[in-house]
Amino acid sequence: MPTIPAATVDAIITDPPYSSGGMMRGDRAQSTTAKYVQSTSHRRGTEFTGDNRDQRAFHLWSTLWISEALRTMRPGGIIGMFTDWRQLPTTTDALQLGGAVWRGIIPWHKPNGRRTQGRPANNCEFFVWGTNGPRELADGETLDGFWQQNAPRDRVHQTQKPVALLEWLTRVCPPGGTILDPFAGSGTTLLAAKNTGRHAIGIELTAHYCQTTVDRLADQPIALDLAGADT
Ligand SMILES: C[S@@+](CC[C@H](N)C(=O)[O-])C[C@H]1O[C@@H](n2cnc3c(N)ncnc32)[C@H](O)[C@@H]1O
């Protein structure tokens, strides 16, 4: 991200590692497979990195990356990130500490999400969003404040988001503008940007998912040289 010139992207849409999956430090330290893949599923997928911070570290780290991401975005642009119910309060705090103006929360309701007998289901994730300072009221189109869709069944990433949800969110970026996703995973935001006529910059630390992103975006196979990659 430090190599991206200041005030050059139009929107930031991302899905950082939540460091969630439980209330205790021991819960969070589990593998991403144990936390995010249902035990009955045969599709385990590849582990991803950066998901084991305790609450204090998650808060400070979120503030740091949000602050650096805002540097890359033009004044008035929209920044938004996914989170779950456990990390929602920390995420809205970090958004503001990182320097954005907090503007709202879009629930993403998954009707077929996991249920527990005798209590309400936690079958929503949340897109927390804000702006890089003031935003002109006429800057862009109106969007509804709610999305309903099941999580994709055939996933290539353990926490993959639906393409249609990301295509809808790209409308916060003007057509032809540039979206930054600093935690690209399998590239769902980048694919949505491509499908809706936006440019996109993706950053991903897990080498396997860099290749997955390229495979999803490419019309023909492109092999990345990831020999020197850390993870
Ligand atoms: C929640 S997943 C994103 C999934 C994505 N929305 C999708 O649909 O495939 C977060 C991703 O961030 C990556 N990651 C973790 N720490 C990172 C860092 N410091 N820089 C870049 N990517 C990182 C992980 O490897 C993981 O793939």
Automatic annotation (TrEMBL):
GO BP terms: methylation
Lineage: Bacteria, Bacillati, Actinomycetota, Actinomycetes, Mycobacteriales
Xref: Gene3D superfamilies: Vaccinia Virus protein VP39
Keyword field contains Transferase: yes
Domain of life: Bacteria
GO CC aspect terms: cytoplasm
UniProt xrefs under InterPro entries: DNA_methylase_N4/N6 (IPR002941), DNA_methylase_N6_adenine_CS (IPR002052), RM_Methyltransferase (IPR001091), SAM-dependent_MTases_sf (IPR029063)
UniProt similarity note: Belongs to the N(4)/N(6)-methyltransferase family.
Keywords of the record: Methyltransferase, Transferase
GO molecular function ontology, one term from the record: site-specific DNA-methyltransferase (adenine-specific) activity
Domain DNA methylase N-4/N-6, chain residue ranges per copy: 9-213
E.C. designation(s): 2.1.1.-
Protein name, per record: Methyltransferase
